Amino acid sequence: MIVINLTDNSRIDxxxxxxxxxxxxxxxxxxxxxxxxxxxxxxxxxxxxxxxSDISQKINKNLQDEKFIVANVHLFGGKExxxxxxxxxxDVIGWNSENFAVQTGNLIGFVKTPDISIEISSRFGNKFxxxxxxxxxxxxxxxxxxxxSNNGFSEWIAVFLxxxxxxxxxxxxxxxxxxxxxxxxIKIRGxxxxxxxxxxxxxxxxxxxxxxxxxxxxxxxxxxxYVFNRLNTKHKSFILDCFRIGGAFASGTNGCLPNLxxxxxxKRVTNPYYNDYNxxxxxxxxxxxxxFGDISNSENNTSAFLFDVSMLFEFFIRKVLVRHDxxxxxxxxxxxxTSRGLSKNNDYHLKPDIIIDxxxxxxxxxxxxxxxxxxxxxxxxxxxQLHTYVGNLMNYKTVSSCGIIYPICQSRFEExxxxxxxxxxxxxxxxxxxxxxxxxxxxxxxxxxxxxELVNDKIVELKxxxxxxxxxxxxxxxxxxxxxxxxxxxxATPIGAVAN
Length: 500
Known about the structure:
The protein is of the alpha+beta class. It has 14 helices and 18 strands.
């Protein structure tokens, strides 16, 4: 299998120069993004562009299918967030199989077929991605996350997917199955053990009966309970949000755990009502085998696990601001509408990512998971969007400040901080814009992402992880405390503020 490792919002060129060694050497030695998982190279591996194009067309088409999105694109923040279906998984640029490029967008995760695996991680590093989800989706703390190698990242992704499937299946309750039981009873139930009945001299009045009964203590529930037990030992922080679910399975099985071979031999559920548990069974076995690279559905040759990192970053920023006592309106607030030219029921809810209620005025901010251009500034279409948001909200209340929030790596921020006099230590650029003859403060705000360093030495790696953790926490604190909002707060109790 060919494995291609990419990062989000990036362009990667694949070029073959025939006069350098061989085609095989150029593809799989000179291109750091590509690797072979098999020991023996085969000629068919040169069909790289064909494989990539097939995946691109298939996944991009499926991203328009609501069923595919529900099954494969994982969202954060519940109903408040939707996947932006305008973004493709990848775009292949160029027609020449010896000279083409791949452009990635906001989707992170992986897609696998029998011939190729494409993995897209964050351009800021996997540590940043883990911290985003840790802060945003209830993973709370990750004291043992250590170095985020490819295998470790796949392990975490596998656990996350297992939890998602389990939460979906658990809505049906614990699955019941018919199990064989043997018990001494006063009344006959099922079949009597004839040999025991003939030989029973000292135990007259009781019958050894063999019968089948619907029971929670069945192989499926024991398998899931076994996985909880395994994860609780190795990665307790990963399942803190599933504590009650784990307790329900432990209670249902009376604390009984199977051995590994019995757990891996667990059969699929035949009751159609509990069909969702079949996916949980597959993922449970993969976790027990430590086979985190293969979490595909056995009935489908193509598997995918994707999520929109732009939505995740937006959710993260909202959490940071709320936890620093900024009064944000709900994301799914229905009060800000504009007509689509149809009936009132078809009005469009025109609302930016972040609205801060200052009491007598609003602060309007949009979150963009893209690189800020220090030469040309905010992109034209993003300015149009912000002007539209501000103009619409001015119908309801005065807008005193607005802006756009970008992520930026620490090294790039330091580089431009020295070059740009107006970029101060607080992490934002301040200017003015005029809308409807009213001058409004305009901010370009940066969330600074610590640089991720990859080292081989375990002791140095541990120290670097601690430094990254501390820097990340300091940057969260600095962003929340220095966010340009304090000067506009005039009301003690804003209306409509929520902690979401």
